[in-house]
Amino acid sequence: MTPLIRIIGSLNADMVSVTRRFPEPGETITATSFTTSAGGKGANQAVACGRLSRWKSSATHSASSNEPIRVEMVGAVGGRDAHFQSLLRPTLEQSGLDTARIRTVDEDYTGVAVIIVDSSAGGENRILFSPGANYSGMQAIPDVLSTGLAPPIPDVIVMQGEIPIETVIGILREIAKYKDASGKKGIEAGPEVMFNPAPAPPGGLPEDVYAAVDHLIMNETEAELMAPKTEELLRVVPAVKGAGLREQVAQYFHKLGVTYVVITLGAKGVWYSACDAGTAIAADGESRFTNEIPAAKVSQVLDTTAAGDTFIGGYATHIARWRERQRQSGHEASKRERYQVVMDEAMKRAGRASARCVERQGAMDSIPWEDEI
Ligand code: ADP
Ligand code: NA
Questions:
Q1: Do the interacting molecules here have an ipTM over 0.85?
Q2: Is there an atom of ligand 1 within 6 Å of 219 CB?
């Protein structure tokens, strides 16, 4: 069976103007260049999953032993503009994605990110996100909430924060119910859920939904925003009093049901903690394992946009393929294998992918293919 990854999230048209300085309030200045490209965190992560399980040239792909992964994008675009047909759809399909679960909201517009890049300040940017159909078409209604588990059941579900947070919560609750009812363990229990809180929902998510999250993936800023207030933290995991932020965040989310807490550290690489969900203990190498993995070597850092999204693509494709190998072998992986070996491979692959991304200019355009990592 071909593994399936389903990404539920945003699709945007990125409108990028480059300038030698940002305009002052009330001022109009002339930009040095303008481009439109496909974007949105959901679409970026979907493209990353598509490309990182495919070879850029399909002619050479037959030589590879790895089959492409089936990648579905779930989201909503507007019918008032042509951004989906002219921009998003061609890019997504060229990356091998299935776009059949993208709905069109006739009366709304496709999400837009207006991005101003200051070319004199090391490429610093300012972004204004107008959600459009990402919100109106992804409301927490039964039709949308059931998309996570719509047959065929995926191996991996990936979600972020650019669609209504009530929808993210609702989908996670549906998945928690499903896993509870399945009464099975390991890969038989249902899909593995990756949640990337970008942007981080103010005040986090309700505690109960973390039962459905297997992988919580954040950068350092998002980890700070997702950390609960001290009182709340100590109510859930009293033993972490006085510990560093990473340790506090990891134990808190493990206790609430997350198995893998992953914090990306930019040029420093990534730190992760794997722990039996529902428990919160110090790392003992058995029931809990933590590790920091340095970033892959880069020749030059040109543009870090989409590094995090590329990381998630490298990670999700590794987990999806690993699940397929498990299914074929019928052997149940030990905790040590999952927490140490599989995660180590996944983090290194994700790191190699994002290293290629930061060496190139652009967002979605800079996401590499499998044969490039
Ligand atoms: P985000 O892009 O979401 O802010 P990070 O900045 O943490 O996330 O980057 C995600 C991953 O991209 C890192 O874990 C690392 O593997 C890679 N990465 C980012 N910046 C660099 C860099 N300057 N050099 C090498 N790798 C990088
Ligand atoms: Na980035």
A1: yes
A2: yes
